[in-house]
Amino acid sequence: MQNPLKNIRLVATDLDGTFLKNDHSISSKNLEALDLLGEKEIIRVAATGRNMKKVHDVLVPGTPFDFIVYSSGAGVYNWQNQQHIFSRNLSESSVQKLLRYFIGERVNFHAFFPTPENHLHWYFRGENPCEEFERYFSYNQAFAYELDINNLPETEMCQFLIIIPENEERFAKLKSDIEAVCPDIRVIRASSPITKGYIWAEVFHHSVSKGNGIKHICELQGIDADETLGIGNDYNDFDLLEFTRHSFLTENAPYEIKHLYPNTPSNEEDAFAHAVQPLLL
User: Fold this and answer.
1) What is the pLDDT at residue 2?
2) pLDDT score at 191
3) SS3 of 235, please?
4) Cα torsion through 129, 130, 136, 142, rounded to 10
5) Please, what is the end-to-end C-alpha distance for the chain in angstroms?
6) Structure confidence at residue 267 (pLDDT)
7) How many Å apart are CA 213 and CA 207, to the nearest integer?
8) Whose CA is closest to 280, among 87, 22, 77, 39?
9) Confidence (pLDDT) at 281
10) Which residue, 10, 30, 28, 8, is CA-closest to 18?
11) Which of 37, 137, 166, 209 is a Cys-bridge partner for 239, taking CB atoms 3.0 to 4.6 Å apart?
12) How far apart are CA 162 and CA 160, in angstroms?
């Protein structure tokens, strides 16, 4: 029987909950699979919500990836050359509208510097305390600046982050309300990587997505979308999985979405190596 994956030229994987184990380590089988893909000259892409500073926290130099799509597609990084090759930030006019809206609504939010320095951010505490907001702040306090509402920054930004307790109706309304503020933005849903039971609503330029980041790499490398494979584990991987021709969700994906794509074992059981195994035959 002919291998339906024999023409794959690019493999893209999410990191947290997909390629990485729960302790953020890389299994020996996943690392071996990356090496073997490289020997077959298949482009290896990590597509993650992490900014580049946080990517470097989990991928040491020499980890055999070729490109990193970071911050959900707001930037693309050539991992082999250690160079930023693409970025898409929110415009200054959109930033001003969003800042005034969130402050007026008294929402807890983080607002991130433009890429590639988007590990730095401003924060604003709204009227309703949020434990998850404070947990995120405590982990990133060294890179956080309190927002001065009387002297708002006049700059592009990479993104905004709003954290809410898990509630699909509330998220749907929040998404609708935010996207009505200005036309060139979109809200991406992610499950909190810190604490179960919270939704992260991330506001980006409307063209930002993991899928578009991978598309940019494909155009650079002369690769057709039909020659791609992707693997993810969460809502914020949909753009990735919709772009790649052959797409998989891990066993540890939320129950509500697992039926949408073929499943691989969990991230604790070498999901990546299992998904790409047919390419290595």
Assistant:
1) 58
2) 86
3) helix
4) 0
5) 13
6) 98
7) 9
8) 39
9) 83
10) 30
11) 209
12) 7
List of the chain residues with pLDDT < 50: none
Which residue, 243, 146, 230, 136, is CA-closest to 190? 136
Closest by CA to 135, choosing from 197, 71, 47, 50, is: 197
pTM: 0.93
Contact residues for 121 (Cβ-Cβ < 8 A; gap 6+): 110, 111, 112, 113, 140, 143, 144, 145
Residue owning tokens 């983080």 = 110
The DSSP bridge pattern shows strands 10-13 and 160-165 to be: unpaired
* Cβ 235 vs Cβ 257: under 8 Å: yes
Residues in the chain: 281
Residue 48 Cα to chain centre, angstroms: 4
Closest CA to 15 of 179, 278, 212, 234: 234
Can you tell me which residue has the tokens 């905004």? Answer: 160
